[in-house]
Each structure stands twice: as C-alpha cells, then as structure tokens.
Amino acid sequence: MSNASCIEARPRWRRRAPGVLPVLGVVLVISAAGAMTLGRYPLSLRDLLAFFGARLHLVALAPERDDLLRNLILEIRAPRIIAAASIGAALSVAGAAFQSVFRNPLASPGLLGALGGSCFGAALALLLGLSWAAVQGLSFVGGLAAVALGVGVANAFGAASMITLVLGGMISGAFFTALLSALKYMADPYDQLPTIIYWLMGSLTGVSLSQALTAAPAMLAGIAALLALARPMDALAMGEDEARSLGVPVAWVRYGAIAAATFVTALAVSLAGMIGWIGLFAPHFARLVVGPRNAVLLPASALVGAIFLIGADCLARSLVKAEIPIGIVTELLGIPAFLLVLRRSRRSWT
Amino acid sequence: MSGPALVGVDLAFDRDGRKVLDGASLTMGAGEVVALLGANGSGKTTLLRLLMGFLRPARGRVFLHGAALEAHGRRIIAQKIAYVAQTHAAPFPFLVRDVVALGLLPRTGWFGAIRAADAERVDEVMGRLKISHLADRPYTEISGGERQLALIGRALAQGAEILVLDEPMTGLDYGAQMRLIALLRALAAEGRGFVMSTHHPEHAHWACDRVALLEQGRIGAEGPPGQVLTTAAIERLYGVKVEAVETKAGRKAFAPLNLG
C-alpha cells in the first residue's frame, strides 16, 4: 500500500481529533451566549457585553437597565444555561462510561436502572412534599438502590459479567418503573400527579441559580472521576481478560465507573427530571468525531451533550408561546439524530 | 534455560459441578516455548487462565519466579506476563496502533505520559509483526487474523518476559502462522518464555521446546515434542489415526491414515 493510500485509509477522526476539543469548547461558549440572548425578552450581544462589562466596572449602566439585565441574565437565563450544559455533559459522559464498561454501544444511563431509580426517588420526595435538597438526596439514593439491585441480581446469577449485569439492570429498571407507577397512582390527581408527571417530562424551568451552581461542580467532580478512569476503561472496553492481563482491577474500575456515572445521572434527574436519549446519542456522535479513546471521548461527549442540551432548551422555550418540557424536545431531536449517527456507527459494531 | 519462571502446581478447577482440571501441573522456564495440546473441552483455556490468575483454583497454586502469583501486585504481574485470548471482538473502533499501545498501560500507569520511546516500541512491534500498514485502521474493520496479530502486538508491547497465548494461530493464514512461529523462536532466543495452546501438533514440533498433553484434567505426558508427540499420543488425544512424515529439513508433520 502506498503512503498516499495509507493516509487516505485513515479514519477522518484520526486527523481531526487533536483540534476538535478546542473547537467544541468555542461552539459551547457561542451556544451559551446565543442562548443568553434568546427568550421572550430578546437581548443583543451588546446587552450581554454591557452587563458583564458593568460587572467588571468597564462600562456604566443605568440602574434600572442594570436591574433588568441582572434579572434576565443571572436570575432567569444563566441558571437554565448552566443547568442545561452540566446536565447534558453529565448524561453524555455517563452514557459513554456505561458503553465502555459494559462493552455495549447501546448502553445508556438507563441501563442499570439508574435513571428509573433516580426518577422514583425524586418522585417520592415530590409526593411527600419534601425540599429540593431532599429531592436531590432521594434521587441519588433511588439511583444507587436501583444499581445495587441490578448488581445484586447479577451476582445472584454467578459472576457479575457484562450480560448478567445488563439483565440485572433490566430487572431493576422494570421494578423501579413499576414503583414509579404506583407512586403516580397514589398521588393526589389534582395537585401532586400533574407536578410529578410534568417533572418527569424533564424541565429546566424551576432551576434556580443557587441550585445550578451547587449541582454543576458536583457533576463536574463526577465527570472528572470518570475521566481519571479513562485508560483502564479503554482496556475494559477491549474485554475483561484483556484488562486483567494489563493489570487493571476490573471490578474496581467497573463499579467505580458505575458509581460515578450513577451519581451524575441522579444529580441530573434531581435537577431537571427525565431527559432521555442524550446519554445514548451524544457519545456516539462524539465517537464518530474523535474516536473511541476515553481520554478524548469523555470530554468530547461532555461538550457535545452540553451544546445539544443548550440547543434543545432554546427550542423548548422559543418554539411556541408556552414552554415545551425539554425531555420531549430531546426525545424528538434525539431519535433522528441517533438514527443519523447509527448509519455511520453500525459498520464498526461486531 | 534458567530456573522455572511460571509454575502451576496440582491445579484443580470445577465448573458447574464438573471437574475441568484435577491436578494439572505445568512448568515454564525463561526463554522456553511450551505447547499445551488437548482435545476440545479438555481444559486448555482454563489452565491458561488459572496460570494468569484470572480464575481461582479449587486446589493448587501458581508461582511466578518462585513466589505465589497472588503475592505479586496486579501491575507487577502485568509487567511480567502478557496474555492473548483465543477469540476476541471489540465493540468500538480503536485504531490498531491504539490497541497495540494499550500494552504500555502496565508501565505508564493510568496517568503516565506516553513518551517517544514508548511510541517507538509500538512502531517496532508493529513492524516486527508486519502490521505497520494497519496502524491507522480501526480494529473493528480488519480481518480476524489481523486482529490476532494486533493482540499479539499488544502483548509484545507490554514488554513482558512471559507470554501466555491461547491458540494464537487461530484465524492466521499459512504465511502469518509460519512468520509467527519464526517470531516466537526469535523472541525465545532473546529470553522470553511462551506457553501456548494449539490444536496443531506440527506447530508444537516446529515452535516449541516442550509439549504438555492435557488429558482428563491433568497433564498426561510432557517433554520434548519428538518424544511426546507420537502417533499413538495423537490418536489417544484426538481419536484419529495418523502417520508421521519427516521433511528433508528434519521437520515433522502428521497426516491422517484414513479420512473415511
């Protein structure tokens, strides 16, 4: 094979990979700035620059204008943009991690019942009329309980191999979905039930700045933990015996990744309810662009997920007069996007 | 050849109440190539996985350089022993170069930088296996034989002194098989030791210093190929009558007496 044809045979992502992350970073900043300008009360880029310039004492703004911009930017738009970016990043990285440790391109945060368990925990807190902190706490406990049940079922059927874990996750997911249905049945149909159902559809409406700023660093910490496992997860993606022969503590890496991915999933659910598809679609899209090495794939997935969810949120609040739950938008956008990615990805599935 | 590098003593393993191994012992010295032969289901893969420490034996111990295998740290074991599985499929399109470079993991650790010398080692291994032209191809888009070579490359990049290969010739074309045998001999001459399972008595003759026959859960016969791999032993192992022929170059081969 000539050199020229060798170069031609290289996958395109091999050549693009090094420069892709900064480009995605720039796209994320542009998306966030664009999202800041969109809404019932449109803002211009000049408004944004003036507001941030005033914070740095570079320009002066009339007090009433400053109050208006502060309210729009900091109280209304920043929380949901921060939440959208962090939730999109968290769910996408969790999806990429689940896909690697289960060696399954179809794995997603819902796989081990993490999504179902988190939703049940959060819905229980809503039913009991608990605080937002309790919603978050019960969401995480529910997610972990669902994963523990899935892993427990897998262990009951022998070693926790990939297949038994997937089966355990399916059983656990079905169990917590049934419990969630029971909660809906018990909820007050005039007050609690609409709240739970609307929340399960996924929404960023109720996220405050303090909630977004509390949850985002925790999600980043979970993402950083998964990034620390990038190389051993590469080995694990090649197979359990391969990873063991390379000195990787398979059980520790697998359960560590599952715990970190469940943690960020539960945080995302507690913040904005059920937001589907993104954990499946974004890692596949990122893999097409940068390849499967987790050291690059995880940050790329995070950026793609963040950009996608910011875009979905813009559509959710600007398509029609009444805001559409973002979960509906991600499902409607995620399915065709995943089909497009599937067309390119399936060639490599064996 | 110096003292034994990898030793399995009296290994027993049960699966679903069935005794797969019952007192199998195997020794491999530094720079020695040992072939493990046995019928399908005789426990070859199980024995290799026990030697790697992937499975816990019901009875018996594995020793690496005289110390119990479990006494060595996981990463230390990975620096000393590499493993290539019998069959392998990857769900994600890692580049062949990246698959081979995974072999650096026991030395670089999870966060260590891959230095220029490491990258050179990866290139050298691919060159030695004649797979340099595949370096930037996705692992999922090459043939089974090419994947096998990539995995052997990963094991060599690991820099281990002992390689445990489970049917390494599977999927390789005739030329690649012969090149791999030559490579095993060259690497053994450099001091690396191999334990490999195979279904080809000829490969054991051409590549190995010693042969072990796995029969009814234990090593039935062991020694130099010329002594152990007799027509009677092959008939006993596989239930096929064969005749032995020897080439002018002194290489032994077997042919079935009756295919009817």
Spatial order of the strands in the main sheet of chain B? 6-7-8-3-9-10
| Strand element count of chain B | 12
Shape of chain B: globular
- What is the CATH top level name of chain A? Mainly Alpha
Helix content of chain A: over 70%
Number of domains of chain B: 1
In what range is the share of β-strand residues of chain B? 25-35%
The CATH topology of chain A: ABC transporter involved in vitamin B12 uptake, BtuC
Helix content of chain B: 25-40%
Outline:
With 350 residues, chain A is an all-alpha fold. Chain A has helices at 3-9, 12-37, 45-55, 63-101, 114-127, 132-156, 162-186, 192-200, 209-228, 230-237, 240-245, 250-272, 278-290, 294-318, 326-345. Chain A has a single domain (77-344), classed as ABC transporter involved in vitamin B12 uptake, BtuC.
Keywords:
heterodimer; A: 350 residues; ABC transporter involved in vitamin B12 uptake, BtuC; disordered N terminus; B: 260 residues; alpha/beta; Rossmann fold; 10 helices; 12 strands; 34% helix
Describe the structure.
The complex is a heterodimer of chains A (350) and B (260). With 350 residues, chain A is an all-alpha fold. Chain A has a single domain, classed as ABC transporter involved in vitamin B12 uptake, BtuC. Chain A contains 15 helices and no strands. Chain A is globular and about 70 Å long. Residues 1-9 of chain A have low confidence and may be disordered. Chain B has 260 residues and is an alpha/beta fold. Chain B has one domain: P-loop containing nucleotide triphosphate hydrolases (Rossmann fold), CATH 3.40.50.300. Chain B is built from ten helices and twelve strands. Chain B has helices at 44-52, 74-80, 96-101, 105-108, 116-128, 144-157, 174-189, 201-207, 225-228, 231-238; strands at 4-15, 18-29, 33-37, 59-64, 67-68, 81-84, 162-166, 193-197, 210-215, 218-223, 242-246, 252-256. In chain B, the strands form three sheets. Chain B has a six-stranded mixed sheet, with helices on both faces. Chain B has a four-stranded antiparallel sheet with strand order 2-1-4-5, covered by helices on one side. In chain B, strand 1 and strand 2 (18-29) form a beta hairpin. In chain B, helix 5 (116-128) crosses helix 6 (144-157). Chain A binds chain B through residues 1, 6, 9-11, 14, 99-100, 103-105, 228-232, 234-235, 237-239, 241-242, 244-249, 287, 291-293, 347-350, and chain B through 49, 52-54, 74-79, 81-83, 85, 88-95, 98-99, 102-103, 105-106, 110-111, 133, 136-138, 140-141, 151, 154-155, 158.
